[in-house]
Amino acid sequence: MTYVLYGDDGSGSATVEMALAEAGQAVELRSVPLEGDHQLRDEYRAVNPMGRLPTLLLPDGTVVTESLAALLTVADMHPEAALLPPPGESGRAVALRWMVLLAAEFYPQITRGDYPARFGATPDQFDAVRDNARGLGREVLRVIEAHAGLRGAGSEPFLLGPRFSAADIYIAVLSRWMGGRAWVPVHCPKIEAPAQAVAVRKAIAPLWVRHKLAPA
Ligand SMILES: N[C@@H](CCC(=O)N[C@@H](CS)C(=O)NCC(=O)O)C(=O)O
């Protein structure tokens, strides 16, 4: 058995696909197009009851929903890939801090921006809700920019300084969304550094393009 990843190009499944690629793991991709809301259909909800992408099936068939849980699981299952510092190292705590912040506070703003009606907005309110979601998401990025100890381009580009980790994959991908490809380089140049460094990694570069993360 191999890994199975339910996802769509341009979605959060990119993060898990990239982690698996870094770990040198084969994966069977199963497409669940967001266009047409295939993620909300009964057959997919039987796998992921929240109706969200991604979902990772481990080689033993275990279902892992939630992008962050899937990333941490891949890191745990392939310690040789060093996707996170080992338990007990302070670098691991730092990586978890920023990854949890992104999962808990940034990702939900993507949902608000993409599906404002779900949050009770009427069509005339959609633009305001989207602006608000973008603003709240950008506040999170500004916090990371100011407090993550990032050094920026030209020197130790990663969230953990010289050491690449799954946290870089997560921030690289999520920071491209909600207009981030244009906004982040200007307002969060230190976040731009890990994004650029992740984009050119050998295992990730082709996925970066397929997942529509490269500059338009
Ligand atoms: N907490 C979830 C959020 C995932 C999520 O919102 N994914 C988006 C795609 S990037 C999605 O499936 N949206 C469709 C929807 O909400 O109906 C996770 O981290 O996996």
Concise description?
This protein has helices spanning 13-22, 42-45, 67-77, 90-114, 126-147, 166-174, 180-187, 189-199, 205-210, and strands at 3-7, 27-31, 55-57, 63-65. By secondary structure, the chain is of the alpha+beta class.
Describe the structure.
- The protein has 216 residues and is an alpha+beta fold.
- The protein has 2 domains: 3-81, Glutaredoxin, CATH 3.40.30.10; 90-205, Up-down Bundle (Glutathione S-transferase Yfyf (Class Pi), Chain A, domain 2).
- The chain has 9 helices and 4 strands; from the N terminus they run βαβαββααααααα.
- The protein has helices at residues 13-22, 42-45, 67-77, 90-114, 126-147, 166-174, 180-187, 189-199, 205-210, and strands at residues 3-7, 27-31, 55-57, 63-65.
- Strand 3 (55-57) and strand 4 (63-65) form a beta hairpin.
- Helix 1 runs parallel beside helix 3, helix 4 (90-114) packs antiparallel against helix 5 (126-147) and helix 4 (90-114) packs parallel to helix 6.
- The chain is globular, with a radius of gyration of 17 Å.
- The mean pLDDT is 96.
- The site of glutathione has 15 residues, from helix 3 and helix 4.
Assign the structural class, choosing from mainly alpha, mainly beta, alpha/beta, alpha+beta, or little secondary structure.
alpha+beta
- Portion of residues in beta strands equals 5-15%
What is the molecular shape? globular
Q: What do we call the CATH topology of the largest domain?
A: Glutathione S-transferase Yfyf (Class Pi), Chain A, domain 2
Distance between the termini: 37 Å
Low-confidence stretches: none
Order of helices and strands: EHEHEEHHHHHHH
Number of β-strand runs: 4
Q: Compute the average pLDDT.
A: 96
Query: Biggest β-sheet: count, sense, barrel?
Result: 4 strands, mixed
Q: Please identify, by name, the CATH architecture of the largest domain.
A: Up-down Bundle
Q: Reading side by side through the largest sheet, how are the strands ordered? A: 2-1-3-4
Just give the CATH class of the largest domain: Mainly Alpha
Helix content: 40-55%
Bound ligand species: glutathione
Computed over alpha carbons, the radius of gyration is: 17 Å
Individual helix count: 9
How many discrete domains?
Answer: 2
